[in-house]
Amino acid sequence: MNITLTPELEQFVQTQIDSGKYASATEVLLAGVALLKEIDRVYKGRFEELRQKVLDGVDAADRGDVIDSETVFENLQAKLEQKRYQGQ
C-alpha cells in the first residue's frame, strides 16, 4: 500500500520522529491508526449505550412511565444547585 501525505502531514510525521517519540514514519502512522481504531471502538460502545437508553425511554413512554417537563427541569435545577453548593 502506498500512502501520499500532504506536506503538512509529512512535516508533522517528521516532527514526531525528530522529537524521539518514534523511530520511523511507519511507527508514527501505526500509532495514528491504533488511535483511530481505539476512538472507533469507544464511539461504537458509546453509540450502543445511547441506543439502549433511547430504547429504554421508548419502552418507559409506552408503559406511561413518564415525567412532565416541568418536574424534569425542577429536578435538574435542584441537582445543579446541589453541585454548586458542594463546589463551594
Automatic annotation (TrEMBL):
<protein>
    <submittedName>
        <fullName>Type II toxin-antitoxin system ParD family antitoxin</fullName>
    </submittedName>
</protein>
<dbReference type="InterPro" id="IPR022789">
    <property type="entry name" value="ParD"/>
</dbReference>
<dbReference type="InterPro" id="IPR038296">
    <property type="entry name" value="ParD_sf"/>
</dbReference>
<dbReference type="Pfam" id="PF03693">
    <property type="entry name" value="ParD_antitoxin"/>
</dbReference>
